[in-house]
Amino acid sequence: MRLPFVISVPHCSGRVPDRVKPALALSDAEIADSIDWGTREIFGSLEAGDVLCAQWSRVVVDLNRDPERRDFKGVIARIDYSGRIIYHSGMVPDQKEIGDRLREYYWPYHDRLRDALALPHIIGLIDCHSLNGVGPSEAPDAGKKRKDIVLSNNGDHKGEMSPALGSTTCPVTILKLMKQTFLEAGFSVSINDPYSAGFITTHYGHAIADRGKFAVQIEVNQDLYLGQGTGEFLPAKLAEITSKVRGCLEAFARAVQARDVAEP
């Protein structure tokens, strides 16, 4: 089944351009910490309307940030998710370098994403991530064990609009359909907990809502397929989760399409 979605995988790469590498104060292992492990394997192999996988590490440019965001964790971050300084002293990107990176690495991804979402047969966007099994110290759920699947639509823990966040990116009825498909496959699921959706989901979700389309952010718990204490892929587990996620998204697509037919 070809899914009627655009699949976005913005944090799946650890590559750094040769021209950028000398400026980085991070080791190769520290750069690798910024990868959403498993997302390329699980989501990048899906058959869908379009599948976009990041070519470069988010320490080079973060595709899931507003291009105008210039703070320490902005589109060209100066500290990584673990709070480590990314650049050697005196080598923080200046405005020209920021502009060059946006042009070379950021806009090609977003231009393709925008064009794909405009296609008439596309009904929604799924922005795909993975997360640690237990919330790290800097996370909103520090020290807490996380669910297998986290679905987000910029709403509250029921998927409904939160006054503090503004409009949702996906109707709660559709989000519940997605949740149900994962529950039926044996996954535990949370809604907007610990995260309520990032830039890609909110920006494009709001932009396509008036066309009857939706956007959902999905995060998969890395404990499902990485070895405890090793961080190494468990091939059999990864293959199992990849197959199950594909089945869930196919079931979800059929449910949404059936709902649209039933509700003219």
Give structural notes.
Helix content is 32%, strand content 14%. It is α/β, with parallel strands linked by helices and 264 residues long. The chain has a single domain (3-19, 36-65, 95-262), classed as Aminopeptidase (3-Layer(aba) Sandwich), CATH 3.40.630. The chain has a six-stranded mixed sheet with strand order 2-1-3-6-4-5, sandwiched between helices. α4 packs across α6 (235-262). The longest helix is centred in the C-terminal third of the chain and has 28 residues, at 235-262. The chain is globular and about 55 Å long. The mean pLDDT is 95.
Keywords for this structure?
264 residues, alpha/beta, Aminopeptidase, six-stranded mixed sheet, 6 helices, 6 strands, 32% helix
Computed over alpha carbons, the radius of gyration is 18 Å
Give me the side-by-side strand order of the main sheet.
Answer: 2-1-3-6-4-5
CATH superfamily grouping: Zn-dependent exopeptidases
**Number of helical regions:** 6
**What is the ordering of alpha helices and beta strands?**
EHHEHEEHEHEH
Number of strands: 6
CATH architecture: 3-Layer(aba) Sandwich
CATH third-level topology? Aminopeptidase
The helix content is 25-40%
SSE-based structural type? alpha/beta
